[in-house]
TrEMBL record:
Domain Plant heme peroxidase family profile: from-to ranges: 35-337
PROSITE patterns: PEROXIDASE_1, PEROXIDASE_2, PEROXIDASE_4
Residues noted as binding heme b in the record, renumbered to the chain: 203
Family annotation (Pfam families): peroxidase
Cofactors that this protein relies on: heme b; Ca(2+)
Subcellular locations according to the entry: Secreted
Protein's name according to its UniProt entry: Peroxidase
PANTHER family: PEROXIDASE 53, PEROXIDASE 72-RELATED
Gene that specifies this protein: LOC107889497
Residues that bind substrate: 173
Gene Ontology cellular-component terms listed: extracellular region; plant-type cell wall
TM regions (residue ranges): 12-31
Length: 339
């Protein structure tokens, strides 16, 4: 009897140690994956998505382009060091802003709307919602408010403490690149060919500056002639918007049929050689490319496009987020805390 009583504390200690070991393993497994989930702010800022949507609804009344501009911010953010809000940081003593990288300078817009959203959230639930999550929520609201699909946004990203201007110059897909190069950039962040075509479908609304496609109108690949894949009547229209000696900052609709609605007309236009950017048209006009059949599917079936787009936005939003104790929750999206 005496010996069994003396063994009891040891057994309890063994069970406790074993239990703690199991808990540690579980936490290790869970912690090894990005902890994004749809209910992240349910207790701390339950109206977060409503604040985002409300500010964007207001902004759309005076700027029909803002939805396309906001989804582009999320895209350009995620392709550089993951979805961490780094694109929102201004220049400082320690930061070279991604805003000044070639794919962003004089073309990214909507930063004021992000600031308005952040102000509304800070007034309601200070220090809770990250700028990176604001971009993800704003992208979904922008698409659904203009006729596109809705999806459940996964949340819990934290904000970076720095930016990567060099990375923005090298990692963001360019409208001048070949399909092979763009596919490689998608692959580098874990996105596949279906993601590439679906996400390119965001060009179903918004505008692009002439300087991003004028070479197709006058001197494609140094030939002195227009891009032969351009529909001739569409070419004439674009040359009127973008004269050869004109400003490269005039804008044309990315999708000429329903330029302010989120639908699948973008893909029908590719089939008719009416893609605005080289990177758009190459999805359909690159001989033997696996993207052609996906374009055909999305053109004939808007539901298929919407479903793929929603899933691809979730996939993109999962690129290397900062979670847990990494990064911070910026109180001002333009600068790191304490700077």
């Amino acid at each position: 009897m005496k010996s069994s009583t003396t063994m009891l504390p040891s057994n309890i200690a063994n069970y406790a140690s074993f239990f703690l070991l199991i808990i540690s393993i579980i936490l290790l497994i869970v912690g090894s994956k990005a902890q994004l989930n749809s209910t992240f702010y349910d207790n701390t800022c339950p109206n977060a998505s409503s604040f985002v949507r409300g500010v964007i609804q207001q902004a759309l009344q005076s700027d029909v382009r803002i939805g396309a501009s906001l989804i582009r911010l999320h895209f350009h953010d995620c392709f550089v060091n993951g979805c961490d809000g780094s694109i929102l940081l201004d220049n400082s003593a320690n930061i070279q802003s991604e805003k000044d990288a070639a794919p962003n300078t004089n073309s990214t817009r909507g930063f004021n709307v992000v600031d308005n959203i952040k102000t509304a959230l800070e007034n309601s639930c200070p220090g809770i919602v990250s700028c990176a999550d604001i971009l993800a929520l704003a992208a979904e609201a922008s698409v659904s408010l203009q006729g596109g699909p809705s999806w459940t946004v996964l949340l819990g990203r934290r904000d970076s403490l720095t930016a990567n201007q060099a990375g923005a110059n090298s990692s963001i897909p360019s409208p001048f690149e070949s399909l092979t190069n763009i596919t490689a950039k998608f692959t580098a962040v874990g996105l596949n060919t279906n993601d590439l075509v679906a996400l390119s479908g965001a060009h179903t609304f918004g505008r692009a500056q002439c300087r991003l496609f004028s070479s197709r109108l006058y001197n494609f690949s140094g030939t002195g002639n227009p891009d032969p894949t351009l529909n001739s009547s569409y070419l004439t229209t674009l040359q009127q918007i973008c004269p050869q000696s004109g400003s490269g900052f005039n804008v044309a609709n990315l999708e000429p049929t329903t330029p302010d609605s989120f639908d699948n007309n973008y893909f029908a236009n590719l089939q008719n050689n009416r893609g605005l950017l080289q990177s758009d048209q190459e999805l359909f006009s690159t001989s033997g490319a696996p993207t052609i059949s996906i374009v055909n599917t999305f053109s004939s079936n808007q539901t298929a496009f919407f479903q793929s787009f929603a899933q691809s936005m979730i996939n993109m939003g999962n690129i290397s987020p900062l979670t847990g104790s990494n990064g911070e929750i910026r109180s001002d999206c333009k600068k790191v805390n304490g700077s």
